[in-house]
Amino acid sequence: MNHCQFLCYGLLKIFLKEVINSTENESCLCSYFMKTVVFWVIQNDNHMAWVPENLLMCFWTCFKLLISWVHRGECPNFFIPQNNMFRVKVVGQTQCALFDHLFGLYCKGISCLLLSPTIGKYLYMPMVDRTLTFRTDEGSVIQSCRLDMCLFDELAFVGINPTTLKEFSVLLISIEQIQMYRLSSFQIVTVQIFLCELLEHFSWLLSGQITEELSNKKRAYVCDNSLQMMKLATKIGCASEILYLAMLYFKNGQYEQSLRCLQRAQEEMPKPYVMYNGQVNEEMYRRAMAGVSLSDRMRKCLIYDIELYDKYVYIDELVPEQEAKKADGGGILLIPPLVMLQMLFVLNHHKLGDTVRSQQSLQDLHTLLLYDDGTRVLEDLRDISWQILGICQQTCGDYQGALNSFQCSLQQSPFNAIQRATMFRIQRINDFLMQR
């Protein structure tokens, strides 16, 4: 330790004795914790200038690390990092009270040093006369809402695409091994997303193995396993994951169960704190998610576009679009979650013979496409969105409306490369109308 580092340790020690160690917290922290904080800052912050002119910045950096440790309930021993020195002393109600105390000091800024009689007599006049100015740089700290947005946007580009049962097994074992390590909250959510995608792929792979050649008992067994995998994926995945479960129920002919999933999705997805494509009401998000873990924030607030891979058959109504995408070079068919929600409502009600509700859902989908400002149906995804409206209209018998919707689809940016499917559907409707 150099001279400035010793001064910083001394400053922390005095601050601990005269300010932090109030009556209820006097046995929580000791000077060895302060020394450990300094050691870790020296070790990890290579850009910190340990010079007397920068002493207050050094103190503030150490103080913030201390607050972070108290919040996590973890103070790693510098020489044996696996040893948590807070394990016994800073836990439970004591930990909460200490954190509130430290956070209150933190909110005062560097002026909290004035609470120390020893330090304050040297800093009071310079601070009052503004001959000593100190910027804590808190204005540059990223808000938690923005940080969540950045993380979730990054996770949207991280995925796995196993093709064989062997790959599934290897990936599942790898994820189980990773979960045995001590992970940060960001790492936990990343692993959660990976596991969710893996289970989802596995579910659709099993679903694709259900054929007429299988016995009824075997088909029921495979179908049940497929559903169990998808239910688990829905449990740990983001808020839009339930739409995949609704699709699987629809594919299996379980329309009532599919509608129950859709009702849950309809209740959750329009809420103002829901995050989609980097857009959210930040104030509502902060209020609703205060004190909620990152993992739970992801499950309650995050919705992604629905991804349909060309190697799986999800629902028969979208097979031509998947084939068109595959003929154009393959890839993933992307569908806005609210569009998929309304499509499944229409199809399920139609299968159950509920004409009134299917027409209402059809109208809701049409209204969404006509009046959306680009926040719920992205510009790039309007081709598939109008296509889906046309498919629903065709299913319900509105052939002229379907033709108009397919024409609108052709006028959009061909992001999903489904023009062949659109022309195929237009031709089929025209042939049908000519035969009437």
TrEMBL record:
UniProt keyword annotation of Transcription present: no
First and last residues of every TPR repeat: 239-272
InterPro entries: Mab-21_HhH/H2TH-like (IPR046906), TPR-like_helical_dom_sf (IPR011990), TPR_rpt (IPR019734)
UniProt key word rRNA-binding: no
Sequence ranges assigned to domain Mab-21-like HhH/H2TH-like in this UniProt record: 8-88
Keywords tagged on the record: TPR repeat
Matches recorded under Pfam families: Mab-21_C (PF20266)
SMART domains: TPR
Family, per entry: Belongs to the mab-21 family.
The protein, known as: Uncharacterized protein LOC111099656
Organism, as annotated: Crassostrea virginica (Eastern oyster)
Gene, per the UniProt record: LOC111099656
